[in-house]
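To make the argument concrete, we let one protein speak, a sequence paired with a row of structure tokens, as a model reads it:
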Amino acid sequence: MKTERRRNWILAAFSGLALFLAGAVCWDMGGKISLSREKVLTIGFFSDSYWEVQNGYSYRILDDAIRVFEESHPDVKVRYTSGILKEDYSQWLAGQMLSGTAPDVFLVLGEDFNDYAAMGGLKNLTSRIEEDEGFHEEEFYSSALRAGQYHGVQYALPYECAPKLMFVNRTILDQEGIEIPGQQWTWEDFYQICSQVTKDTDQNGGLDQFGVIGYTWEEAFESNGVSVFNEDGTQCSLTGTGVEAAIRLIERMEQINGGMIASERDFDLGNVAFQPMSFSEFRAYKSYPLSVKKYSGFEWGCIPMPAGPQGDNISTLDTLLVAMNERSRFPREAWELMKVLTADQEIQSEIFDYSEGVSVLRTVTESEETLKRLMESSGNPESLNLRILSDAVENAVVGYRFRGLSEAKAQVSQAVDAIMGEDSTIPTGQIIWTRRINRFLNENQTEQ
């Protein structure tokens, strides 16, 4: 329902925008419109963290970016509306589109990006990127740049990002005499370690130490080269050996526990060896005093995801985007502001001070200054490796962003559970569920 409401707002916004523009053209043809010569550039931002972590620096990076921009553009003033929460942002932006007052530059949430790009609300940035000699695509992580593309066209720039990594309880592995896995570890390594650490440590007849929590078909598919949906979410494919291998892995992992399911409480107490986690969540939990409250009983760090036989040590990249309004009156200035937000190294370095994400610039993320900042916040030099982090960002896959994604994922979750529980062979179940999910996707598209 929430996704559908967002979609309805966006549709209404573009319908209203079309009427507004038609009226504006007629008014202009009558000679009754007068445009102010003052250049006031507007930008849309929300007040809280994209990563849903409380901090006291809501607008610090934005304000610093505006200061840098205005110093080099004294004839332009930048304004923004404060106090908009992330949960209200999509509706607010759609309302601005509807009234014809949308900002020149604005953040775009992942679940809204495809809709705005498809409906013509975002400026195509391709020509500006190609013609601007001061803009260097190679300075960005390629995966972060791809997050701003729709059907191969660049409609947005990445502002900050966070890859998913494998959180590892170093204490458990040390106690069991197991080395921390390297960057090239595999599913089989993962399975063997989980099998070894899963046990009844107090000999009371029940398991109390576990291998992993939160590892699902999503992580397995991603690390085995499987793209289950197309870009627009109109087609699904659960067939193929890559999917079959991933389902078999999930099945094997569940069998290790003998039917028992580890809980978040087990993880918090230090009784689980692995958990997939966004790096933004990792940073938030490592920061004092939350880490002391929640994870004070064990040492931990992060490593890449284990690779499947047909894949690599990769996972999804979550990226917050910055886009330009297709109807901006000041596209040149809007582009310059976007560059300050995304390509200025000093501004990007502030992400490690005032946010929980990762800079989209390789040189910033890999710098000694960044390592120092992260060490100061975590207090544990062994928990972080900038090379692992940087490689995880560069090699990550762009997450699905089509409308109705949560419902489509729920269908795949149901399919995986059903296939593992059915008497028929896995390939047969894959074919049956591919048809069912595609029928669901088609019906969903028809309704919209």
